[in-house]
């Protein structure tokens, strides 16, 4: 019973020989969220008065996520988002304890990023809110929740898709695909609620700006959307465990008999021998 309890909590992921690894991962999550809030929210703060700035903001958030995933993805998986982390916990990709530590690191990193942004920008820009998420008067809080649900859904669906260990071809484009999912979310929802997609990002900006109205929307929406996407991918869309032959069959128009492929492979090896 004790062993099962420890396994459920994921204690083995954060103690013993994994202690050094988990600290590196937490630092990576902290730095990732720091960069997200500094550069992403920085784009919002500096161009908020420009009506055509939505594309610039969307690209800034998408590009910084691309950079973060590319640089620290091998260290922590580059969740950089409680919605992704909760989805990973629910689908048992990581343990509960590791998930909690990740979320704490993410929130602290976002807070640090927003604090640095506050300290390095002129006072006239602070009135723009430094990227704080605010529900637009044109929609209700419930509608904003629905928007954030969809944003969390598409982001986590993308993350699970490109991280599927049985989809070898998706690994190279993973960081770009995740960055584009973030860019897409901002293109569609910046005018509605500033586009959160990330509870930690919203938390850091809210602390510095002191704005907490409808803050629950930016936690509940992305996390619930992410959980639904994670479960859907794991139990419906996940690529089956297959060998090289089946992968060829999946991604070519012509399905070749497995025995024939083996025969041809064997003949090719023989022909290459001296």
From TrEMBL:
InterPro entries: Aquaporin-like (IPR023271), Aquaporin_transptr (IPR034294), MIP (IPR000425), MIP_CS (IPR022357). GO terms for molecular function: channel activity. It is a multi-pass membrane protein. It is found in: Cell membrane. The chain crosses the membrane at residues 26-48, 54-78, 99-120, 140-160, 172-189, 216-236. Keywords: Cell membrane, Membrane, Transmembrane, Transmembrane helix, Transport. Its main location: membrane. GO terms for cellular component: plasma membrane. It comes from the Eukaryota. PROSITE patterns: MIP (PS00221). Belongs to the MIP/aquaporin (TC 1.A.8) family. This is Aquaporin AQPAn.G isoform X1. It comes from Agrilus planipennis (Emerald ash borer). The lineage of its organism: Eukaryota, Metazoa, Ecdysozoa, Arthropoda, Hexapoda. The gene is LOC108740272.
